[in-house]
Amino acid sequence: MFQTDTRPKTLFRKENLTVAALFLASTLSIVTTIGILFSILFQAIEFFQLESFWTFITGTEWYVGHNKSVFGAVPIFAGTFMITAIALIVAIPVGLGNAIYLSEYASKKARNTLKPVLEILAGIPTVVYGFFAALTVAPAIVALFELFGIEAAYNSALACGVVMGVMIVPVITSLSDDVLRAVPSSQRNASLALGMTHGETIRHIILPTAVPGIISASLLGFSKAIGETMIVVMAAGMRPNLTWNPLEDMTTVTVRIVDSLVGDHAFDSPHTLSAFALGLVLFVITLVLNMISLVQIRKFKKKYQINSL
Amino acid sequence: MTSHPFDDPSLKKRHRKARRFRSMTRLSIAMTMGFLLFFLFDMARTAYPALWQAYIQVDVNYTEASARFTSMAVAKEDRSLVSRAWLRTIPKRVEADPSLMGTTRTQWLLADGQVDQYMKGHHHTLKPGEAARVDALREQGKLTLDWNTHFLTQGDSKLPEFAGIWSAIVGSVLTLIVTMALAFPLGVATAVYLEEFARDNRFTRFVEVNINNLAAIPSILFGLLGLSVFINLFGLPRSSALVGGMTLALMTLPIIIVSSRAALRSVPASIRQAGYGLGLTRQDIVKDHVLPVAMPGILTGSIIGMAQAIGETAPLIIVGMIAFIPDAPGSFTEAATVLPAQVFTWAGMPERAFVEKTAAGIMVILFVLVTLNAAAIYLRKKYEIKW
Fold first, then answer.
1. Residue of A13, A16, A26, A137 to mutate when probing chain B, most B C-beta within 10 A
2. How far is C-alpha A278 from the chain's CA centre?
3. Interchain CB distance below 8 Å, A36 and B224
4. C-alpha angle B125/A156/A148, rounded to 5°?
5. 3-class DSSP assignment, residue B15
6. B23-81 residue pLDDT tens
7. 3-class DSSP state for residue B104?
8. A32, B2, B121, B277: which one has the fewest Cβ atoms less than 10 Å from its Cβ?
9. Residue B139 and residue B143: Cα distance in Å, rounded?
């Protein structure tokens, strides 16, 4: 005999209400993304109604004056990419080296102590890195190059880039470490069984297998570096400066955004609105980087049927 | 001489190469750890002088005139050595204790920031005469370096000797209350929905992609959202803990969702099946059985999210939380500043004396962060269940 459910219907109506409320909460992430996109997009469109889009994308002069302003963002993009490139040159080898050490060589004990320390490094607020860059690293770089008789600026791209690189080392380390550990042990064992040394196994078998994951980690670091604000606000220059010399001061997209939104400008002035145009560029670039990064890691997971990442 | 069939003459070289490879990875981890050590040492060394503060013993005249023109309260030759910020508190002191009026008291008060810097051996702008007087007073024991008691109890000031971090601490706490009040319930609700109720359809996957993406969007863009939506569209007060907290909540949300989902996923299916077997509704199973088991994991993730929110600066600068706040804010809608924003403001001050204050502020932030992370690790270890 089956017993029919005699509990009141209200019980299930209540459950439907709960599920509806939970569903609503989960839509907030979509609302936020749309909110960010639209709040930037509308003001950016307003900006491009006042200023030429073509000049913004290709102009090499950025000048904000009382009467006349020119908004050519190329020097700003160039500064951003220079600082980001320096950061990645520091962060990718060190981060990858850390990940290889942690996943391949470290004993369990060493791993258990090193991991929390890396978490501390990852948790240091960027404003602290910014202060460190301006107070310690920048003067050190100036002093170092003075030894060779080369003049470096106190807010050089190099100082910012190096400190930013240190900031993204934990990001690349922890993601690459996960990826390297997820490489199926059958690959490793096969290589060792054929008489390859441990080093050769890592270099010729494990690393090539993990390449999509490492690319994903690097792209995430790239996107973090482009969007990083406090380090560059505190240690990079304000002046849009189109140059190949990393010892000169340069400015970045995020510095210009902060500069035009902090201070007393009318909210609908081109100067303020330019922040949103730059913000739009930042949004699009980081979105593309994040998406490629997601696709890469998914490819890696699918190919080796890994569920743990 | 016959060689072994497995002997490979290049083996030695290959092993050497493998060892070289290993030492390279060791070098990179040593560099990372070395950086962290050097960084912490450098910060602590810069912050150390902020533990001390110069105090000067002088006669203070509490008269009608000195309540109005506060610099008249001390003898002329001491005026430049006493903190102007302290003298400005004279009217308040007289108000608090009217019996002071008309008396002259010998008191220890805050010395000027330049005196402080001179006594610590830093760069200073004292004139030679003033420096000589400082030395003389020091001989007499009327000028001394003592514990800096007001750094943790005072608000911001333009004068370095009077600047403290209290109002930033209060601002940070208010902001975090708003952040967690919004992000925790919404984040856990989203995680519960996605793990326990949602079907695997296109919408669910779209939400997941969105969450992953939100976690990687530059923080400054959340500031742009806060500025155009919360301030310009909703008309909420600029610089307030409310707006700052709401902006940070949106950033903390993905962290809480991801960690809560992991915690919910680690609850074994047998618990849910037992609930179904007893005829419970799904709602009851989640509320009474799944969530309590997953709670330590959820709390750990939330603490880590909170730690990240504490250090976040860029979006708060955009919504105006770098205002000059001498007195601690009393409500969520008053202008406020937060710890990292205070550090940022001090870092931009031209006076050398603010360098040690900035580093001291950073030490306060790092202390809070390490405490929170330790709490998270402790929670994880204590309540971790092995199934």
1. A26
2. 16
3. yes
4. 90
5. helix
6. 999 999 999 999 999 999 999 999 999 888 889 888 888 887 777 777 778 887 788 88
7. strand
8. B2
9. 8
Smallest CA–CA distance from B35 into chain A, residue: A166
Phi, psi of B386 (to 5 degrees): -95, 120
Q: Is B313 exposed, middle or buried (0-12, 13-18, 19+ CB in 10 A)?
A: buried
Query: How does B328-347 read in b/e, with b if 16+ C-beta sit within 10 Å?
Result: bbeebebbbbbbbbbbbbbb
Which domains does chain A show, CATH number per domain? 74-304 (1.10.3720.10)
Contacts of A116 in chain B (CB under 8 A): 373, 377
Residues of B in contact with A287 (CB under 8 A): 213, 217
More confident residue, A65 or B54: B54
Spatial distance between the Cα atoms of B161 and B100, rounded to a whole number of angstroms: 25
- Are residues A137 and A152 in contact, defined by beta-carbon separation less than 8 angstroms? no
Residue B87 phi/psi, 5-degree rounding, is: -60, -35
B114: confidence class by pLDDT, cuts 50, 70, 90: confident
What class does CATH assign to B166-383?
Answer: mainly alpha
pLDDT tens per residue, range B244-284: 999 999 999 999 999 999 999 999 999 999 999 998 888 88
- Contact between B144 and B214 (Cβ < 8 Å): no
SS3 A154: coil
CB B179 within 8 A of CB B252: yes
- Per-residue pLDDT at A308: 64
- Closest Cβ opposite residue A258 in set B17, B31, B317: B317
Q: pLDDT class for B3, splitting at 50, 70, 90?
A: low
Measured over the CA atoms of residue A172, residue A253, residue A292 and residue B225, the dihedral's sign is: positive
Test B43 with A283 for CB contact under 8 angstroms. Answer: no
Q: Does A139 touch chain B (CB under 8 A)?
A: no
What is the distance between the alpha carbons of residues B347 and B326, in angstroms, rounded to a whole number?
17
Examine the pLDDT at B1 and tell me if it is beyond 60: no
| Nearest alpha-carbon partner for B249 in B306, B169, B171, B194 | B306
Q: Which residues, 6 or more positions from B268, have their beta carbon under 8 angstroms from its beta carbon?
A: B387
Domain boundaries, chain B: 49-93+103-149, 166-383
Helical (H) or strand (E) element with A78: helix A74-100
Q: Give the pLDDT confidence of A211-226 residue by residue, as tens digits.
A: 999 999 999 999 999 9
Q: Record the tokens describing residue A196, joined without a space.
A: 């390859």
**In chain B, residues 227-256 whose CB comes closer than 8 Å to chain A:** 227-229, 232, 250, 253-254
Tell me which chain B residues have a C-beta less than 8 angstroms from the C-beta of A25: 185-186, 189-190, 193
Burial of B302 (0-12, 13-18, 19+ CB in 10 A): buried
